[in-house]
Each structure stands twice: as C-alpha cells, then as structure tokens.
Amino acid sequence: MINVIYRPKKRLFIALASICTLLTSLFCYALWRITMPGLTQLNDYLPAIFGGMVILVVLGMCAGVLGIVLAILGFPTFRIFHFWAWHVINFIFPLAIFLGKMIDIPRNKIEQSFIEVNNHLVRKQKIKVPANRIMILTPHCIQLDTCTFKITRNIENCHQCGGCCVGKLLELAHKYGIHLAVATGGTLARQVVKSVKPKTIVAVACERDLTSGIQDVFPLPVLGVLNERPNGPCFNTFVDINKVEEAIKTFLEDEGANAN
Ligand code: SF4
To answer: Does ligand 1 have an atom closer than 6 angstroms to the CB of 155?
Structure first.
C-alpha cells in the first residue's frame, strides 16, 4: 500500500475555524432573537443579560481565531493570547470536523492542518527547556513487528539493530539527554507524561492520535511529527528522524552545549 504524503496547509483549519465562528455567531444571534419574547415575559432584564452573554461568547471566539491568524501572519502576540486561542481551538475543533464532513473534506486533512497550526503556535512561543524536561513520545507501532525486545517498559532494551526507527530515536535521546517513551495506547501515554513530568513533548503519531494527544495534554506544549505508514495504519510505521531532531532543537535550551 502506498502512503501518499499530503502537504498540510494551516489555512484549511483557519478557514474552517472562521466559518464555524461565523455560523456559531449567527446561531447565537438567532437563539437570542427567538427567545427574546419569552425572556421579556419572565423579566425585562433577561434579554439584555442573555444578549450580553451571547456577545461575550461571540467576541471570545472571534478573539481566539483572530489571535491564531495574527500569530500565523507573524504579528507579535502575548502568551495569554495563545492560551486563549487554544481554548477556542479546542472548542471549535469538533465543529470544524463536522463542517468538513458536510462539505466532503477528509478528517485527516483537517487534522493535519490542525497539527500544523499547533506546531506553528508552539514554535512562536520560543519555549526553551533543559534537555531532561523534553520527552519524545511515540506509539508502539513504530517498533518492528517481529522484534522480540520489550521496549515499552524499558526503552534501553532496544538493541539499536537498525530494523526500525526506535534505535534511531534512542540514539537521539542519548545524544541530547532527553526522555524517550514508547506507549501502547492513550492511557499509557498519559501515565508516562504524568510520571516523567516533561515541560515539552515531541510527539510522533498518526493524525488522529496526535490531534487528541495535543488536546489531552494542553497546556503542555507539543510539537507533533506525523508518522509514515507505508504498511498501512498502526503497523511497522516510520518517522523522519530529521524532523524529530529539528523539533527537539526547537525546545532545547542551550542547544550547542547539548548536541555534539
Ligand atoms: S531497532 Fe531493532 S532492536 Fe530496537 S526496537 Fe527496532 S527492531 Fe527492535
């Protein structure tokens, strides 16, 4: 099976998020208009109070989407703005997926675009942490199916034979002194994050796992690197080691001192 790599575009998610914001605003306005007579009968102030809440929700969503757009266009934005933008993204994401489904845009393309937006926003924050607070997190399907070494409990069990990408990832982990974990599922991944307590994560996974993982660990900054699946999903997957290393360097404090 040939896996065609699609070049994700940030603008797809931005466009869907903007349309969702517009539709939500229209929906809120229509709701306010429809409920106004009933609310007035209950209390004269209720339409104004409800209207005020509607305006706050709409302004909040617009500010979030605008924040993302400005950050992507290269305008300086405050960290708090990123934080707010993220809440809006998490709220809008299911709506964007639903809208995409209605207009026949494949879910994985929206997820790829979302990951691009996430990576861009994370890079913009210029977060630098010590090497031992960075963790590479990757799914178990990256290990060669026929490999007999148990690496999920102890990654050092990998013999770095070159049969799969785990060996190369371990090499990177040793080179920079960072954590590397291979998780068999979302629950184990969450447990690893809880016990290692990294400050930043370089996550390797498919679109769906990356998207949910990024949202799960928020506000922890995650740079997502999509895996390659020439053998189909969840089986003997690969990752571009250069992309992983580039993501590590993005977070690495005093990069020159750590790499050799
Ligand atoms: S690099 Fe070799 S030893 Fe390590 S997990 Fe892959 S196949 Fe197993």
So the answer is: no
